[in-house]
Design brief:
Layout lengths: L7 H13 L5 H32 L7 H31 L5
Length: 100
């Protein structure tokens, strides 16, 4: 469930339910929401300012912007894939019973 699409009533129910949970407390939920908002804002800003960074700061010619952007996207997807595979391996190995 994505917290971005929750109505105010659903959010209140979620926070009330978190009071009953020992693992998820109100400060944890607040921190999660702040980090989520900050991350989405940062990613949106970086996508918006990427051409400026590539042209003005890194001095990449306009003719090569598409090639560089595509290369950066391939690296990003590859890194995500490797991280997900490693995380899945750690989670599975942590949950498996020894000797089973």
């Amino acid at each position: 469930m994505s917290f971005a699409v929750l109505s105010p009533h659903q959010l209140q129910v979620c926070l009330l339910a978190s009071r009953r949970s020992r693992r998820l407390r109100r400060p944890n939920a607040r921190t999660f929401f702040i980090c989520s908002f900050t991350f989405v804002t940062l990613v949106t800003f970086l996508n918006f300012v990427q051409p400026y960074i590539l042209e003005e700061i890194l001095h990449i010619p306009v003719e090569q912007l598409g090639k560089v952007t595509g290369y950066l996207n391939v690296l990003h997807e590859g890194t995500d894939l490797i991280i997900v595979i490693l995380a899945a391996g750690v989670i599975v190995s942590g949950r498996s019973k020894p000797g089973a």
